[in-house]
Design brief:
Helix 1 packs parallel to helix 2. This protein has 11 helices and 10 strands. It is of the alpha/beta class and 294 residues long. Strands 1, 2, 3, 4, 5, 6, 7 and 8 form an 8-stranded mixed beta sheet that branches. Strands 9-10 form a two-stranded antiparallel ribbon. The N and C termini lie far apart (38 Å).
């Protein structure tokens, strides 16, 4: 699949997606990509040896398929054959709305960035899932100027900068995405794009459970904030297995009422609407935008 036009002189974009047994999700991403209003992009899938129909599915959409590995290996492999001026790293379990690429590239260029990420939105009906993703958004923004963070499932970067920093560090056991944007931000301008949101699956919460997953993230974050690279981990890293159902639904059923009661006690009522958290991040004024761009 390829869209291309020279009418608007938009930068060509390469979408790079690392996969392993993503047949249950990849069709959704492929469909979302072909519905994008952005008119100059290519899709590259770096597959790590899927035993399901992942590769067959992406080939039906005209994606370029290369040999992948763990996420860092796959992203580097995809980027190595990219022809776009910009590279957008996405995972199989995201669902970009039709104007997503157009909007993220527009804001990226308006802010004169070299690397960036955007806000995330849970694909879920559970209030707690939205609360966790809102907290993530707040954290991404609050740390962007001194310790840049970006989820690996949505990173936009200039291809030249990716080459300059020699891509993702494949020696890391975890947090290779954080290390990547941190190094990129040393060579270029990084920001969190606040006018764009990307819906993402909560399958990791479903599979691993909220307490184990948050504990892992806190463990990793302690290393990041103290400048330590994560070369080894005291737990098993799961890749290509998040399509299964884990313990979270049972955990949620057993504890949701008490957790939601605590959430509501700590969040002003005006931030809750229809039993769901509304966006905690108000859009910036034009004045604030100009000050940040300067």
């Amino acid at each position: 699949y390829m869209k291309d036009t020279n009418v608007d002189q938009k930068p060509k974009l390469s979408i790079v997606n690392p996969t392993l047994n993503e047949a249950n999700y990849i069709t959704g991403l492929m469909e979302a990509v072909i519905q994008q209003t952005y008119t100059s992009c290519e899709i590259i899938v770096a597959d790590a040896g899927s035993t399901d129909a992942t590769v067959d599915i992406v080939k039906q959409y005209g994606a370029k398929v290369v040999k992948g590995g763990l996420p860092a290996v796959g992203r580097n492999a995809g980027a190595s054959v990219a022809t776009g001026d910009l590279i957008l790293f996405l995972d199989a379990d995201v669902l970009p709305p039709p104007h997503f690429i157009e909007n993220i590239v527009s804001e990226f260029e308006k802010k004169k960035l070299d690397v960036g990420t955007c806000l995330v939105q849970a694909i879920s009906d559970r209030v707690l899932d939205h609360a966790l993703h809102n907290i993530t958004n707040l954290y991404l923004i609050s740390t962007q100027r001194f310790v840049p963070h970006a989820p690996g499932f949505v990173i936009l970067i200039k291809r030249d900068l990716h080459s300059t920093i020699h891509g993702f560090d494949t020696t890391l056991a975890l947090a290779e995405d954080q290390d990547y944007v941190y190094r990129a931000a040393q060579k270029g301008r990084f920001r969190v794009l606040r006018h764009v949101q990307l819906p993402v699956s909560v399958r990791r919460l479903d599979f691993e459970g909220i307490i184990p997953l948050v504990t892992k993230y806190l463990w990793v974050e302690a290393h990041i904030m103290t400048g330590q690279k994560v070369h080894s981990i005291p737990f098993q890293y799961q890749f290509g297995k998040h399509g299964q159902t884990g313990i979270y639904p049972k955990f949620f059923q057993n504890t949701s009422q008490s957790i939601l009661a605590q959430v509501k006690e700590r969040i002003p009522s005006n931030l809750l609407r229809d039993n769901r958290l509304v966006d905690l991040l108000p859009m910036k004024s034009n004045t604030e935008e100009e000050q940040e761009t300067a």
